[in-house]
């Protein structure tokens, strides 16, 4: 009788199937446990964005910073404690905003379905809704992320590419998250919204190689304009990344980069690789013919990085604290 052997194979298959199932996110994950979650997130986000459209950018960036450090597990939201310095306190995070919005959305969801929806899922939904509310694309957000219990300051520095990263470093950073060179070109288009502190790019204006020089890859006319906005050693002024339309999600970013007016070295670096360069030129000349479609696809991929599912992690009650 071969049945014990078949039984073993069957059990093994079930185990494998269950594991791979547990690792997947699902559309409508909360259909039974919190059917109104997407509506609550959307209404609350819309209320915020209609009053303060500039908050859409930081909400999108929060999701990115969450996903690139320990996966999309809400770890970016955890506060430091006496014994632990969290991601929040790392240099790249010092310019993050929007935590209050996430808390507000989470409270609204908790009121309806206490202890059910993770902060990581709320972050993913809020980022999506915020972008779509400022005329950006809308994308599917499969749900079922669980919240992590760990947030470590040094991991933010290691995992988030700095604004002075070159193309090799950027491609490697994205590849380490299973994102492609195309995803890099596409997701960089996020810089069509939002603002940056002068300090994130002022070396390009004043001291590029330590000899009081400028970055030769930056349009000299644009340098004049940026210098009038950002004085040397200015740590507080904010510059619009896509001047004139920094509150609207559009394809202008690629027009700027193609004109050598990308704000960061990491933006300019997209012209240093044949694939990313071709993408920039295509979107610049075709008025973003495929940008929204591409962006939706890449955001869905980003939202799946290193997620915790099944029984892993927890559903945090308050996003700033592990339970
Ligand atoms: C490719 C590598 C990337 C680098 C080096 C980078 C770097 C930066 C820096 C330095 C800032 C300005 C922070 C400040 O000084 O205030 C910024 C802002 C921003 N980034 Fe990125 N970023 C990258 C990719 C992304 C991705 C993938 C997204 C979203 C999916 C994103 C979304 C944003 C948004 C929306 C802002 C504006 C935030 C605000 O207005 O507060 N970035 N980024
Ligand atoms: C978490 O820390 C932030 C500053 O990093 C602070 O503004 C906020 O009040 C803290 N949250 C709570 C609930 O203590
Ligand atoms: C990118 O930066 C790394 C580290 O500084 C350096 O080793 C590499 O040569 C640079 N690559 C390019 C293409 O500039
Ligand atoms: C990338 O994909 C590999 C192989 O599928 C997987 O082992 C790894 O965990 C993934 N990394 C991330 C950050 O998702
Ligand atoms: C310019 O950079 C060099 C080398 O990093 C540094 O020693 C110098 O202090 C900087 N100059 C100014 C004006 O910040
Ligand atoms: C750079 O500029 C600073 C401040 O204006 C000046 O003190 C320094 O001597 C200059 N350094 C060089 C190498 O020109
Ligand atoms: C929003 C936030 O938590 N910002 C923190 C970033 O890190 C600095 C110092 O490391 C803190 O002072 C900020 O509160």
Automatic annotation (TrEMBL):
Q: Which residues form the Plant heme peroxidase family profile domain?
A: 24-323
Report if keyword Glycoprotein is assigned.
yes
**Binding-site residues, substrate:** 161
**Marked site: Transition state stabilizer:** 61
Q: Where is the signal peptide?
A: 1-22
Q: Where in the cell is it found?
A: Secreted
Reaction(s) catalysed (UniProt annotation):
2 a phenolic donor + H2O2 = 2 a phenolic radical donor + 2 H2O
Needed cofactors, names only, are: heme b; Ca(2+)
Q: Offer one example of a GO biological process linked to this entry.
A: response to oxidative stress
> Can you name one GO molecular function term for this protein?
heme binding
Coarse class of the primary localization is secreted
Task: Relay the cofactor remark from the entry.
Answer: Binds 1 heme b (iron(II)-protoporphyrin IX) group per subunit.
Annotated residues for binding of Ca(2+) 2: 192, 242, 250
Q: One cellular component GO annotation, for this chain's record? A: extracellular region
Residues noted as binding Ca(2+) 1 in the record, renumbered to the chain: 66, 69, 71, 73, 75, 87
Q: What does this protein do?
A: Removal of H(2)O(2), oxidation of toxic reductants, biosynthesis and degradation of lignin, suberization, auxin catabolism, response to environmental stresses such as wounding, pathogen attack and oxidative stress. These functions might be dependent on each isozyme/isoform in each plant tissue.
Q: Which family does it belong to?
A: Belongs to the peroxidase family. Classical plant (class III) peroxidase subfamily. Belongs to the peroxidase family. Ascorbate peroxidase subfamily.
State the name under which the record lists this protein: Peroxidase
Task: Please give the organism.
Answer: Olea europaea subsp. europaea
